[in-house]
Amino acid sequence: MKIVNSLSKVNIEEIKEVYHSVGWTKHNEENIKLIFNASHIMTFVLINNKVVGIGRALTDGIFNAAIYDVVVHQDYQGNGIASHLLTDILNKLEGISCIHLISTTANEAFYHKFGFKKVKTGMAKYRNPKLIAEYLE
């Protein structure tokens, strides 16, 4: 297992395969380049030089950060890859006072192990009706 922190050192098609393996099929190569180039932190886990896990974060570098897309290829889930992704991202965010994260449904317990807790005043605005039904109260 190898961790890489640069988009230029990984295969975009393999990133797309990770997203698609978990049903996130709107992630095409163009979108992937845009979202990772707009991210301040990116982490990729490679096994046998193939991308099997991805994660990214945005931050102001001092006070706030938001972690997005901690995703492991369906064929590699359950092997600790997400823990490696999140640990690497959190290490890079050391010193940031507030780190936000939105978990996908049923993965909340995983993030609790890393110290994440529900936010009392957190809010979100989703424009997709399916996501509204899944994530908003």
UniProtKB/TrEMBL annotation:
Pfam families: Acetyltransf_1. Residues 2-137 form the N-acetyltransferase domain. InterPro entries: Acyl_CoA_acyltransferase, GNAT_dom, NSI-like. Keywords: Acyltransferase, Transferase. Coiled coil: none annotated. This is GNAT family N-acetyltransferase. Gene3D superfamilies: 3.40.630.30.
